[in-house]
Amino acid sequence: MDFVTVGARVRERRKKFGMSVQALADRAGVARYTLIRLEEGKPCRPETIVKIRRALMLFTDQMTRPFEDGPFAVQRASDVRWSVSVSKAEYQKRLVDDDPYHVDDPEERSRLGTLGFQPFFTAILGSEISDGVSHPALMEFYRASWVDQHFGEEFVYCLQGAITIEVDGVPCRLEEGDSMTFDAMRPHQYLPDESKVPVRILIVVSTRPGERTPVPD
Predict the structure, then answer these.
(1) 102-105: long-range contacts (C-beta < 8 A, 24 or more apart)?
(2) What is the arithmetic mean of pLDDT over 14-41?
(3) Most-buried pick from 64, 81, 139, 181 (CB within 10 A)?
(4) Cβ(9)–Cβ(58) under 8 Å?
(5) Pairing of strands 199-206, 134-141
(6) What is the pLDDT of residue 140?
(7) Residues 53, 81 within the same domain
(8) Residue 16 and residue 59 share a domain
(9) Are 128 and 134 in contact (CB under 8 A)?
(10) What are phi and psi of 120, to 5 degrees?
(11) What is the pLDDT of residue 214?
């Protein structure tokens, strides 16, 4: 793991949310000195990285992606990585590959999703500019997600299949080509039509002006 890149990503995200080092350390449950060392590019324990990542609502791919210079950011299809929603360690006694975080083979994703091991997969897209407000991702569903709640407005476009999104308990069904936007601070859940799996959607989470914390306190 490139800790220089990870530290820079953590520092950028922390400042974007207007959080002090101490505030993030308290939220993540880590020592202030540990966070300072990480932001300086020093090595850190994997379990500590996970705590900080979750406190900042970051995926592993976002933390390890190098910064791009230039007026735009591009995600090439050949470089898309699909992250798991459930740790592989929960259903494998030993890893059958060297990557515990991703399943890029579509047939393997289908197998794991159909068997119920992975309710969904997420591909964080690298087409995100530094200090930007929009965070795009692809999601592939086989089962219902858990109820989520986080910062920003969430735009959803249904690419394949059909899915119902409940926001504050109110359902909205999307077919292919349909889209919607909702306040992601409200409790929401994705419920794919399991007769049409895999269901694929594009989501874009946008940070609103004045929004400073990654999750509700």
Answers:
(1) 104/80
(2) 90
(3) 139
(4) yes
(5) antiparallel
(6) 97
(7) no
(8) yes
(9) yes
(10) -160, 165
(11) 54
Dihedrals phi, psi of 165, to nearest 5 degrees: -115, 120
Place of tokens 């993030």: 24
Q: Strand, coil or helix: what is 36?
A: helix
Instruction: Give the domain-ending residue among 64, 94, 116.
Output: 64
Confidence of residue 95 (pLDDT cuts 50, 70, 90): very low
Q: Across the strands, what pairs with 204?
A: 136, 155
Pairing relationship of beta strands 170-175 and 162-167 according to DSSP bridges: antiparallel
Rounded to whole angstroms, the maximal C-alpha distance in the chain is 51
**140-176 tens-digit pLDDT:** 999 999 999 887 899 999 999 999 999 999 999 999 9
Answer yes or no: is pLDDT of 108 > 60.
Answer: yes
Residue 145 DSSP one-character state: P
**Tokens at residue 113, please?**
């999703």
Give first-to-last CA distance, the chain, whole Å. Answer: 31
Residue position matching structure tokens 């996970």: 50
Six-digit token string for 55: 């406190």
Q: What is the pLDDT of residue 98?
A: 53
> 3-state DSSP call for residue 122?
strand
